[in-house]
Amino acid sequence: xxARVSSGLQLPNWVSTEKIARKPAGSLQLFRKYGGQRLxxxxxxxxxxxxxxxxxxxxxxxxxVSENHKASVLESESSPAFLDxxxxxxARLSFENVAFSRxxxxxxxxxxxxxxxxxxxxxxxxxxxxxxxMGSGKTTVGKVLSEALRYSFLDCDALIEDGxxxxxxxxxxxxxxxxxxRDNETEVLKKLSSMHxxxxxxxxxxxxxxxxxxxxxxxxxxxLDVPLEALARRIVAVGTGSRPLLNHGDGxxxxxxxxxxxxxxxxxxxxxxxxxxxxxxxxxxAKLGYEDVSDISPTAIAIEALIQIEHFLTE
Length: 315
Hints:
The protein is of the alpha/beta class. 46% of the residues lie in helices and 20% in strands.
């Protein structure tokens, strides 16, 4: 991964070149906030930071450019020029971190597209089925995959809701029961199995019926394996109202959710393991030096899914 940080900023005539801080050719190393573990090592040519002082106010600018993208400039809001040096350093580091974060996002998108172009021809049009517990990111990651592969994205739950007059999953469970929902889920998967070039986000319980696996075997199944603790935090953060299997009982939301998720996973864990590909966020976090799997971006997860699919196809 190569980065170039441009020093070719368009400077107004009141900015002295003495106010530009340059770094010689070398490398930029980015470290995670906690633990000091290096995540990226990027050769760089030089960096430029500009502190503009005009009419008593100061603006910080950072310009970043990669070989695949035009230069972009991140500019802070104007601040009083009488800020002390420690405040200036904090502001400078903050804006530089944002600028490089944006750069890394661009590089991750490039890596995603590159890997998709490698894998897509070998799929032969086969669809991808994302399985996993509720809250594991199947919809979010699925949309990233579909865009990169130029496949169509479909959400099983949304198709079921459309098929019963737009009722939500929670309402379907309440009015018709779980068995009715599962029957409709199987019917949707049966129809999708005859189609190609799809990325399908399945419901968390789709794996419990063997007939559903027969339908998904016409494509490639991907298990997004996320630690239960992370799932509980995510679900509690957005509320359990839309989760009919969780929206019961009183008590602390996290404890209640964690307990229910544990029960569901005991029932479904072996079924998830039937997937063709497993993407373990716990393993990814360990490799990247992350303390929280939720810090892993959907794009990074999608790239790992494609890498695992590539391994599956070459076995």
